[in-house]
Specification:
- There is one protein chain.
- The strands form two sheets. Strands 3-2-5-6 form a four-stranded antiparallel β-sheet, with no helix packed on it. Strands 4-1-7 form a three-stranded mixed β-sheet, with no helix packed on it.
- It has one helix at about 1-20, and strands at about 45-50, 70-75, 80-85, 90-95, 100-105, 115, 120-125.
- The chain is elongated and about 60 Å long.
- The chain has a domain at about 45-125: Immunoglobulins (Immunoglobulin-like), CATH 2.60.40.
- The protein is an alpha+beta fold.
- About 15% of the residues lie in helices and about 30% in strands.
């Protein structure tokens, strides 16, 4: 009789351990081990340059570094692809997929610059305000 009780107790303990995973707290599924395919991003290029602000009264002043300049990158049909506000030396850098883009500055006196981005290359497009 003792052996029967032990066998039942072992079955209940093992069963409880198995059943505890079926209810209560949910756990994230663990992926099965095996070979994984590497995820590779499409090659990209970088557009960079200087975007100067338009503040003639501060030209050459240290205060000029504290003024932000908004640089916007436009894709096909004028869609906004990226925006970056730069301070200090006013150097911007944006990594993009290959293609043609227009780089514009919110500063008065700047002209938009059209660039072609190619993989693994850096393209320079300075947006210098002519009011300085």
């Amino acid at each position: 009789m003792v052996r029967v009780h032990r066998a039942v107790a072992v079955c209940l303990v093992l069963g409880a351990g198995t059943w505890s995973g079926c209810g209560g707290a949910r756990h994230a599924a663990t992926p099965a081990p095996g070979p994984r395919s590497p995820v590779t991003a499409a090659p990209r290029g970088t557009v960079t340059g200087i975007a100067s602000p338009c503040h003639p009264q501060l030209a050459g002043s240290a205060q000029l570094a504290g003024i932000g300049v908004l640089v916007t990158i436009l894709g096909p049909h004028g869609t906004v692809v990226a925006r970056q506000t730069v301070f200090g030396r006013h150097v911007y850098a944006v990594t993009l997929a290959p293609g043609r883009y227009q780089v514009v500055s919110a500063a008065v006196g700047t002209e938009p610059v059209t660039v072609t981005v190619t993989p693994h290359r850096r393209v320079w497009a300075d947006l210098l305000s002519d009011c300085i």
